[in-house]
Each structure stands twice: as structure tokens, then as C-alpha cells.
Amino acid sequence: MKQRYLWLLALLSILTLMSTTTLAIAGEAMTSGYVEIGISGMDTDDSPARVNEYVNTRSEEGFSFAPKFFLESINESSSIDFGADIMGPRDQEFNLEFDAKRIFRFNFDYQVLEHWKDHETLDQMGATAREDTGGAQPSVTTDKIFGELAALPTPVTSVGGVTLPYDAAAAYTQELNNDYIVTRRETNTETSLTLPALPNITFHAGMRIETRQGMEQAIGMSKCDGCHVSAGSKVIDERTEDFTFGATGKFGPLTVEYEYMNRTFDEDGATPTRFYENATNPSANDQLLYEDGYFEYGRTPDSEKDSHLLKARYDFSSNTTLSASYTKADIESDKSEPASDISYSLANDTLKTEFESFGGKLATRFGNLRMSVRANTYSIDADSNIVYRRSDLTTRDDNNLLSFDLDQEWDPAEARDVDEFGIDIVYRLAQGTTARLGYDYENIDRADAELGETETNTFKVSLKSRLSKQLSGRISYKYQDISNPLDNPTGIAQGMGTQDPLNPGLWFVDTANYLGIDNNSATTVWYWNSVYPNRTLEATNLPDTVHEAKFNTTWAPQANLAATLFARIRYEENDDVGYDQTTYVPGISFWYAPSDKVNLTMAYTFSKQDTENRICVGWYHG
């Protein structure tokens, strides 16, 4: 029923357009336009997914008819524009604009674009090599390696005690032959109506329909003993519909705008499935989501969103304005019922999230000084989106061997309260020269206590100047102080065990260093009693201090000639986790226009980034 209403809006808009267009043509009009005829072609020597990710002609090699058309008609009371740009069957754009006495305005836009998606071969994911067929842990491999082992003179059909119930070589060959292409089509219509009887109020409505159709790659894996990694095709048949309506009113110095939006998202493509191995370690059964069978993965749920936006602006004078906004949105996402006998369940099959935001901004000017102060606060409420563990599962915490606690329920990570504040001051030092000072504050208080609370203070300063008619430049500096960036409190074991004499920054933990066990036999060394207790240090790739400087200058000796020199240096660090990163990005660009219809642009950018961070890597089989 909702789709019928959307198409009814489109039909009414088209009928209105037809009737008003007839009236417009009836009067004397000035009409102009042009037609271009062209041919586009494509030829690739490498994978199209790498060299032609966004197709601007066609998906297959060859040539396409590529016309371009534009028509404009204007009279005393109305105007109409129509344009079409076709580069091929998968790159097209159509646009129609109509204006009748500024009372009724209509805009229609249609675009289609093809996107070659990533095609991962998973060659690097095979931790079990060809020579390693003795069945020892870990049983981690891919369809490709399973197929190669089965094709040996002495076929090996079981790795780590696992035998696949399908032809792995055939599955891998099929995966390589898949063309992962998604075609995106978007239709936008916008209408506005200003009645002569209500000149202060403009009513507006819009509709957006986006479809994505094709196929993309879906990769699946499971934890612990069921580590077989494979990829398969996922059919994409998505449709997003946005329906908006609202009004804008101007009452002297006060401007008020309201807009309602309803968005629905539907995925009609089949959910992919993959085979999950049986856990050969019987003590790992309660640590897996599911095992020993075919299960769905990579599912995209249907969802619906309703939002209300209210904005107001009051002009006290030409130099001082106050604006405010309020947003309320409700989102529902339909999740499928989890498979039976897996290790978790959801509190509700329909996940509900509420978003509420208040914001305001005051901008004023005193002589050569301009200042703006802004504040915003928003909350994301997802209290009902709770994940529960099965009550019959063991927690592996009986002997206090884990460095973290296992709860029976987990709060949603997206739930949070955020407060933001900022101030910007711009002072005109001299003609053509301004200095800017800025400060931003952000506090994120997450509902999940383990994710913590993050506070960020940002200080900014910049100087912009036009030294002469030919030379101008800008230099800026930003400093950020971040407390408690999102991290993993027990993520790594670096710094424990034995220091590598050849690499002072490297530490290794062997069986003799494991905690919580009485001997080193393979039957008692498991992740939960050996690896996890040794991971006691924090790990993150997020900084708590940031310094960034930017510089650019432009020299334009003539109106058709310009050269720009620019550079950016950024330094991030987090001493608590031994993380630092330095980025250097200098460059130069040159622009020259020998005539009105010919211009030449050349640019060079150099980028260098050095990163140092603690990591924890599990080494197996040597």
C-alpha cells in the first residue's frame, strides 16, 4: 500500500506537469537547445573490478551509442528544461525542471550507474599449507586449498579431521567465474507549491527511489575449530523508498521549516548459505554460534525509518542570527529468528532504535570580528536490542582464568548520549587577511560500560591572506586531546613472556609462559586457559593526542594560469598502548586554460605514512 501512495504522488506530479506545460507552450516562448552524438568504448586488459570499478560506458568490452541532449524553453510565466546524458547502458542521467510563475516548481532526476564490486580470492587466508596434512590444529583452510589437496596424486580429502560435504574445487572455480556487478538506479522528484493566498508559506514534497540489483561477494567464517573460510555469491535486489513532505514559512525575521520523511528498505535477494564445520574440539561447542551444517550468513534485514525535522531561524539584524533544530527518528530493523541450538538469542526479532537531537547556533558580528557559537546534543536509545547467551553454556571462568567476565546479556553498542559544543572566531587583521580561532568539544557516553566514555577537545588556529593580486595562501594548525578513545582493554600480550634478543620491541609467549595450567601438554593448552589470561594490555589504533598542520599557497600571474603548492603533516600518538603515526602529504598542482574551451590540469601528490603499534599475533606450526 505504501508503494501505491508513492507512485500516486509521482502520477499526480506528472499530470500537473503535463497540464502546466501545455499552458506554457500556449504563450510565446524562447526555445533553445543542442544535440551531441558520440560513441563510447571500453577495452580492459586486467580485472574490470580493479581498472573499471565504476563503469562509465558498459560492463562488456565494445562500443556504445553515447548521445547528449538539452532543451530549454522560457516565456513570461514559465520555464522548462530537459537534459539527457547517455554514455552507455550503465551510465545515464536524465533531468527535467519546470517552473510555473514561481507558484509550482517540479524537478525530476534519474541516474543509473554500474559498480564492479570487490572479488577477493582468499588466497592469503589459508593457514594450513599443502604440506601440513597431519591433522594437527588449526584446521584453517579455504576451498582453493581443499581442492588442491584433493587433486594430489595421493588425494587428501580431510584436513584437521574435517571433510567437506561438497566439491571444494568446483565451488572455488564457480567463485572465480562470478562477475560481481551491482547496478544502481536512483529516481528523485521534488515539488514545491506557493499559493498566492499564502505567500509566506511554501509547501514541498519529494520522492526518492533507489534500487540496487546484481551480485556481490559474501565471505563467511566461524570461530575456533570451525575456521573454514569460504566465499560465495550474494544476490542483491534492494529497494529504498523515501517519501517526504513539509512546509517552509517566513514571518518577518522568523523562518520555520518542518519536514517528515518515511523511508523503507527491502531486500528481496536470497540469503546466501555456507557450510560450517563440526567442532573437532568437544570443549569448544559452547563457544560457536553454530556448527556442523549449512546456515545463512550475510543477511541484510528489511528496515523502516520515520523522522521529523523542525528548524527555525530568527534574524535579529543583518549581523546577528539565531538558529535551532530538533530531530526525532524511529528506526525498525527486522531480524530473522536465529537458528536453533546456537549460542545466542535476541530479545526481539524486530530491533528498534530511537534517535533524538537538539541543536542551536548563534552567529554575530562586531566590526572586524565574526563569532559563532553552536551546541548540539543527541541520544541513541536501543535498550530493547539485547543479545542473550544460552543459559546452559559454560562460561569458562570457573578457575578465574579469563581476563574478562562473560555476561549473560550484552547491551547494544550503538546506544549512547553525545554532547557537542563549538565556538569559532574570525578576525580581519587587514584587507585580505583574516585569522581564525576555533574550539570543539565532544563527549560520547556509551550505554555499554565496557565501551566507556570518550571526551575530545579540539583547538584550531589558521591564518588566511591574499598577499597580492597574484599570490594568496593559508596556514592552519589543529590540536586534539582525546581521553579514553575506544579501545580493547585486554587485547594483546605484548610486553609479557620473553623479549626477543634480535628485536627489542618484540616479545613472545610460548607454552612455558602460559598461565593457569599445571603442565604443557597439548590436551590442557586452550585459548580460554592460556591465551586469554596472557592478554592483559590495552590495544587500539586510535590516538589520544593529535597534531596536524596544513599549508597551501596559490600563485596566479594571469587569469588563465595558476599554480598551487600544498602540504599536510599529521602526527598521532597514544603512549598508553605504544601507538604513534606520522603522515606527510606534500603536493603541487598546475592549471592552464589556453582558450575558453580548452584547459589543462596537472598535479602531483606524495604521501608517506609511518605507523608503530603493539599487536598480538598467534603463531602456529612453527
Structural description of this entry:
Helix 3 packs across helix 4. The N and C termini lie far apart (62 Å). The N terminus is likely disordered. The protein contains 5 helices and 34 strands. By secondary structure, it is mostly beta strands. Strand 23 and strand 24 form a beta hairpin. The chain has a 23-stranded antiparallel β-sheet that branches. A 3-stranded antiparallel β-sheet has the order 17-20-21, with no helix packed on it.
Instruction: Give the tally of β-strands.
Output: 34
Outline? globular
Q: Provide the gyration radius in Å.
A: 31 Å
User: What is the CA–CA distance across the termini?
Assistant: 62 Å
List the SSEs and their pairings:
Layout: H1 2-26, E1 29-36, E2 39-42, H2 48-51, E3 54-55, E4 62-65, E5 68-75, E6 78-88, E7 91-100, E8 104-116, H3 143-150, H4 168-177, E9 181-193, E10 201-220, E11 230-251, E12 254-267, E13 273-276, E14 293-296, E15 303-315, E16 321-334, E17 344-346, E18 350-366, E19 369-381, E20 387-389, E21 409-410, E22 416-430, E23 433-446, E24 453-466, E25 471-483, E26 488-492, E27 498-499, E28 507-508, H5 527-534, E29 537-539, E30 545-558, E31 561-574, E32 579-595, E33 598-605, E34 608-612
Antiparallel strand pairs: 1-5, 2-4, 3-8, 5-6, 6-7, 7-8, 8-9, 9-10, 10-11, 11-12, 12-15, 13-14, 15-16, 16-18, 17-20, 18-19, 19-22, 20-21, 22-23, 23-24, 24-25, 25-30, 26-29, 27-28, 30-31, 31-32, 32-33, 32-34
Q: What's the short version?
A:
The chain is mainly beta.
